[in-house]
Design brief:
single chain, alpha/beta, eight-stranded parallel beta barrel, 12 helices, 12 strands, about 25% strand
């Protein structure tokens, strides 16, 4: 059985780590290289850098951050934010990134996924999807989530047709009217190696991951799903791996503010027989 990965996420703006709620109200959370070194020492499986400045004139900042980080840590680095071309991807991989995460450009130009996969390999290409619930009523969401947690998920397909999420781009600011699951399936066909799936409804809230979102996507795709958005307790990480069937969990606040260490997370998950890499 493949081990489940624990991935701290660093949102980087102008060379500094920031953190917000529902993609808003950003505040400083430290130096990215220092954060990366700390997580590497703790045994994080991977690290994600998301450059939320994401403009051409700021690109050199994140490239330098990646270079400095790659020199000091040994875990794989996934870097995203503002990538538009094969050359952008090449520069990040050359700077020391192991994978790139593409979101807006992938939606606007899906052929970028195929071109990147063909040139660098699918294992380097992570398609990030910011998904927001659009239907139905809250009661239906609650009923479906209770089914997943209680083990009655055999009835979930009957509700699944009622559940939908919309893709947002430009850092969660722009709706697209694109169904998120349909888009994820297309991204897989184009050659994406993984999906970084962020629940906009849960991002920064510490209310727990969207179990339905991750469960439905995990069961509908053959590539790994990285769950993102909503981590607040150890139980939240356990639930999205067990009930949401995610392959990895990405979290920010609980690690940045030292609420939990990577070691504490892994020991907790191991107690629930969730396979993790312990060092």
């Amino acid at each position: 059985m493949l081990v489940k990965r624990i991935i701290p996420c660093l949102d980087v703006k102008d060379g500094r780590v920031v953190k917000g709620t529902n993609f808003l109200n950003l505040r400083d959370a430290g130096d990215p290289v220092e954060n990366a070194r700390f997580y590497d020492e703790q045994g994080a499986d991977e690290l994600a850098f998301l450059d939320i400045t994401a403009s051409a004139e700021k690109r050199q900042i994140i490239l330098e951050v990646v270079r400095r980080t790659a020199e000091e840590v040994f875990m794989p680095l996934t870097v995203g934010g503002g990538l538009r071309t094969i050359e952008d991807i090449r520069q990040l991989l050359s700077a020391g990134a192991d994978k790139v995460s593409i979101n807006t450009a992938a939606v606007q130009n899906p052929d970028l996924i195929r071109a990147a996969a063909e040139k660098f390999g699918s294992q380097c290409v992570v398609v990030a999807i910011d998904a927001k619930r659009v239907a139905p009523e809250k009661e239906v969401w609650r009923e479906a989530e209770e089914m997943v947690i209680s083990g009655e998920s055999q009835e979930l397909p009957g509700l699944q047709n009622l559940l939908s999420w919309e893709v947002f781009i430009h850092g969660g600011r722009t709706p697209t009217a694109i169904d998120a699951l349909t888009w994820a399936q297309k991204a897989q066909e184009y050659g994406a190696g993984e999906i970084l799936l962020t629940s906009m409804d849960r991002d920064g809230t510490k209310m727990g991951y969207d179990l339905l979102l991750n469960r439905i996507f995990s069961e509908s795709l053959s590539i790994p799903i990285i769950a993102s958005g909503g981590a607040g307790t150890l139980a939240h990480l356990k639930d999205v791996l067990l009930y949401g069937k995610a392959d990895a969990v990405l979290a920010a606040s609980i690690f940045h503010y030292r609420q939990y260490t990577i070691r504490e997370v892994k020991e907790y998950l191991s107690n629930y027989n969730i396979p993790v890499r312990l060092v």
